[in-house]
């Protein structure tokens, strides 16, 4: 293949990913439709560098992806991001030769595959080894899927009932495939379409583990015959067989020979040979269930007792183990876990019980230490005991989880009192760390008082060094923090409920997790009513109102804001009053009433300049926001000279305070005023500085808005090329956000 052909295929793939025709792309780039056609057909071997850069802009490529694309004209095909999410293989893996051969047959005749994704649905009872088989085969077949392997545990049978929603799984896959959070479309349907387009034509293996039903799986199926989906479930997933062409594979118990091989591998040939009569009895008692055999071997390994002692324990529990033959998996697992649990040391047994009650999907070593109320080093040692006994899994370095039924069994063993104390410690750990992270993400939030209770004994806060580490921690723990907030609300831990909402707020705001932001603030409002603190209640109403506004629910946003205004006014909190008026100004702007918006902004400014109290740091920060907002609405109403005065004063305060977020917003306002005063160079400088900050902070929508205004300024100054570049980048962002205003930018480009 020539360099031009490789580049042409890349251009075509990106164009189709965005749903553009050749005419659309030609219009965006500013070349003829025939040029695009020749590029894609490989008839232009060395496209102009300018054209290549414009194509990269049109496709929204940045950083490494952009460099790879721009270098692709030298004959080297661009390399797509390859992901390898498969969990570690079970070692040693024994048996299942017949099932492995059946799975291999799926790949033996590619030409005979159907035109939709091939699905292999593994079903069987709990503990039968579905995930082990799926992961082992997937790793064996990984080299036939050079574009990557995706994995998600759908938690279809989580004892808490908190299954992974398909939309959440798709968002996780988009993150893994390199889609920046601010580029993920807001609607679930658009996210699913983006997911399918990213996998189009790619040789990818997707392992969907522990599915509840066909409906949970169906949205995760890529519309590409080059991908293969492997699904495990406790159900038979008949719907996938009937409507989606799935290939069924029912998993039964191990044969006696396979069960003996498993014990030989786990215990060692010498030990098994020393007590040959014990092995058949262990195999018979475990009824060929791989999980039962593995736990029996772990018990023998840990205790070091003769295998005959293990046989005696199995026979003593004969009545319960007979249930195994009756096909009641819950009773089976409980019986098996009971004697495995009995081999644990008392501290390890206690941690095992508490793990069953923790609300999240997994937890870190430090979180486990908080749960148990022990030092981190002790928690690490206890977790190692549990993993060796197959009673916990280190699914990622330093992060631990349990199989669904293990959690259900462990939860039954924990007394309500010890569970309540443990969960209070765990949630305290999450609250304190989340609030620390929030202040690192947005340092000026230190001005907002969030009084935290002292940490309970035996609880430590995660060590977070800086802004980037804080964002990483919040992203890693996001699901656990939401689960903790839900538990706190249900358990009546009212202070922790609203404080978790606060700790997550900036992360939710910048990463566009609007529905999660709404849910946490709704719970926070309810919690605040119980606390009896007017200031906390006012604050939670205000933040919930702001979330409603961003979701386009203006009436609810206005109602929440006005409730907050009454409360803040009642306690004489002028910072709170100013904040609410600024929120109301943005609501009025969204409704197109700039005069009312300016009125609220001026009321906010008056509240900060009332002279009733000294100008403290919090007051000065509100004053800067109010000054910029007044300037912005003055500009929108045509008074651009006055706008400069207000915004420059705001910029001075924000610069002195080092508030990058509000510096960016103020620079954007200044750019708008300079643009309409026809001071184009000053406008360009302000817009470009604002755009740099918006990008750094993850404000996708504001980046798109500022880019559009930058393009307008270049266009007015008679500079068509930079105008087109700015508009094109703005359009690409809005397409990714599924923003209705994309059409307006398209009109400017045309």
TrEMBL record:
GO MF, one example: DNA binding
CDD domains in alphabetical order: HTH_XRE
HTH cro/C1-type domain ranges (all copies): 11-65
Domain of life of the source: Bacteria
Name of the featured protein: HTH cro/C1-type domain-containing protein
InterPro entries: Cro/C1-type_HTH, Lambda_DNA-bd_dom_sf, NB-ARC, P-loop_NTPase, TPR-like_helical_dom_sf, TPR_rpt
Organism: Paractinoplanes tereljensis
